[in-house]
Amino acid sequence: MANKDRTYNKKIRILSLDGGGIRGIITCIILRYIEEQLQKYDDPNAKLGDYFDLISGSSTGGLIASILLVPNSQKKAKYSIEKALELYAEKGESIFNVKLWQKIINPFGVLDERISEKELEKQLNEFFGNLKLSEFIKPCLITSYDTENRRAKLFNTLDGEDLVDNFYVKDVCRATSAAPTYFEPAYITSLYGQTYTLIDGGVYANNPTLCAYAEARKIPFAKVLKDELKPDYPIVNEMIIISIGTGTVLKPYSHRELKNAGKIKWIQPLIDMLLSANAETVDYQILQMYETLGVRNKLNYHRINPALKNASSEMDNASKKNIEALIQAGLAYIDDNREELNTIVKKLISHK
Q: Going from the N-terminus, what domains does the chain have, and what CATH number goes with each?
């Protein structure tokens, strides 16, 4: 039984993954290093999905989260993070393909969505098949936004145990990645038969860490994970949160550029700034929560957001040159922050 004084031997390990389109490659590179260290120091067959108690994601982060939570026949993680990296590196160019004539007549998605959703839906169907949300190995929190009912639609594994809120994973991924001006809204149906029109959860939570924290607060983890050393309904000092961004975007917009700008000219800067501002604000809020804790617990929040270096900030730039630049940006971060990443690995193992 859990202690009433809320002292537990194990903390709840939360992984939160930002949106960012093809820039999710950076996330995969960081996670690959962490997984390799887990294999080196704990289990040669270690997979990330088995080392977190809750995984959250928006947009591209929701897709990566879903890959990590696919079950094998023993209800453990089926895939290594390498599988997600392969999907981006090998299929990214076809998923994000924008024909030259479309770039000329529709450069910002003003007339229509920039990218056809058909290739994305094909890849999601081939990868996830008829896997259901309720079949994930651990609790999840994947974001989207309901345009008809005008409210957030949050997909989570525990609600998925009820047929009304259970969905095919391929549809969840289609919904969370339906970035306005890039892909058409997703029109999906729950296993109960209810239909939804959904867009990318990044419109309100491109950094879903605060959503993940709120979700964790309502989960009886000891019961769900069948581990009495884990706390039910954890409070902040009972959580280890690893939040990973898809690269800092610091492109400046001068007064001269935006002066007298109309709706069309504002589209790209506005999307850029809204996504960045959301991520930065959530980081600030979570950091302030952890700053109220004791010396040791305040260090259990890790925000990882590499510089893009030579990579493009465009979410749909899936050229071979840019994919390589994104990989290099992730590797450069690892070189500069190996100590912190190794600390994360130790924490994941000790609270397994």
A: 12-351 (3.40.1090.10)
Q: Exactly one of 59, 66, 144, 313 is catalytic; which is it?
A: 59
CB-based burial, 177-197: b 16+ in 10 Å, e otherwise:
bbbbbbbbbbebebbeeeebb
From residue 105, how far is each of 110, 121, 190, 262, 291 by CA, in Å?
A: 9, 25, 36, 18, 50
Angle among Cα 177, 69, 197 to the nearest 5 degrees reads 30
Q: Which residues pair with 16 in a beta bridge?
A: 56, 243
Q: What is the pTM of this model?
A: 0.89
Q: Which of 18, 171, 200, 316 is catalytic?
A: 200
The answer to whether 146 is a known catalytic residue is: no
In the chain, what percentage of residues exceed pLDDT 90? 66
The 10 Å CB-count burial string (b at 16+, else e) for 53-71 is: bbbbbbbbbbbbbbbbbbb
For the question of residue 59 being annotated catalytic, the response is: yes
Q: What is the pLDDT of residue 266?
A: 67
pLDDT tens per residue, range 201-256: 988 999 999 999 999 999 999 999 999 999 999 999 999 999 999 998 767 777 77
d(CA 255, CA 260): 9
| Number of Cβ atoms within 10 Å of the Cβ of 342 | 14
